[in-house]
Amino acid sequence: MRKQPLITGEYYHIYNRGVDKRKIFLSDKDYFRFLTSMKEFNQVDPIFSLYWHNQQKRKQDVGVGHLQKLVEIVCYCLNPNHIHLILKQLIKNGISEFMKRLGGGYTNYFNHHYKRSGVLFQGKFKSVHIKKNPYLLYLSAYVNRNYFIHGYGDDSSWPYSSFWDYTGKRNSGICDMNVILDQFKNKNEYREFAQENALHLKEKKETEKYLLEQ
User: Fold this and answer.
1) Domain presence at residue 60
2) Angstrom distance (rounded) from CA 165 to CA 187
3) What values do phi and psi take at 11, rounded to 5?
C-alpha cells in the first residue's frame, strides 16, 4: 500500500531502475518487448500474458484502442538501466495495476530470456504528483530528452523515447500527446522548448556530479 494513494484524473512522473543499478535492456528486442507491453497491458481487462492476449485479439478481432485504459501515457523514455514515464491515472489504482503488469511481465520475459531469476527492478516504482501545468510541461522535456540529459549520447537517433513522436518523426500510437502539444503552435516550437530545457537540465546534472566528486 502506498503512503499516499494515487489520485484518479491526476498526472504523475513515474520512474524506476534496475536492481543494483544493473542494465534492464540488453538488446533492441528487450526495448521492443517493453514498448509492446506498454501498449497491450494498458487496459482494464485482465492480461495473463502477451501471447495469450495476442491470441485473444486474433480470435475476437479487437484492438487495444477499443478497450478501456488504465492510464493515459503522456510520454516515456527507456534508458539502459532505468525508465521514466508520465502517466495520467484514468481509473482507481490504474497506475499501480499498469506498473504491476508492466514490471512483472517484463521481469518474467527477461529472466526467461537470459536464464536468470529474482527481481529485476529496484523495489516499487517511484511517483511524483504533477500538480501544476508548468511542471507538467517541464517534465515532458525532462522525460522526452532523458537519454540525452543523462549523458548517454545524442538522442536524435534514440528510438526508445517518445521524443520522436512529439517532433513528428513517427507515430507509435503509445502516447496521448495533446495535453502537451496543444499548448504550442506546432511541433517545431515544442522541439525548441524541449531542447532549451534539456540543455539546462544536462548542464545542471553535470555541475552537480562535478561538485559531488570534489
Assistant:
1) yes
2) 10
3) -100, 145
Reported confidence tier of residue 56, pLDDT bands at 50, 70, 90: low
Domain of residue 158, CATH code: 3.30.70.1290
What is the mean predicted confidence (pLDDT) over 46-61? 55
Which residue reads 494498458 in cell numbers? 42
> What is the spatial distance between Cα 156 and Cα 164, in angstroms, rounded to a whole number?
8
- Within a domain: residue 3? no
Separation of alpha carbons 168 and 130, rounded Å: 25
- Rounded average pLDDT over 116-145: 97
For residue 123, the 8-state DSSP code is S
* Residue 2 covered by a domain: no
DSSP calls for 79-138: -SSEEEEEEEE-STTHHHHHHHHHHHHHHHHHHHHTT--S--BSSSPEEEEE-SHHHHHH
Distance CA 195, CA 142 (A): 10
Q: Say if 6 falls within a structural domain.
A: no
> Grid coordinates standing for 81?
538501466
> What is the distance between the alpha carbons of residues 61 and 71, in angstroms, rounded to a whole number?
23
* Look-up of cell digits 502539444: 181
- Interval 155-197: pLDDT, tens: 989 999 999 999 999 999 999 999 999 999 999 999 999 999 9
User: What is the value of pTM for the model shown?
Assistant: 0.89
Say which residues have a Cβ less than 8 Å from residue 56's Cβ, sequence separation at least 6: 62
Pairwise CA distance, residues 107 & 113, whole Å = 10
Domain that holds residue 207: 11-213
Quote the cell numbers at residue 143. Answer: 522525460
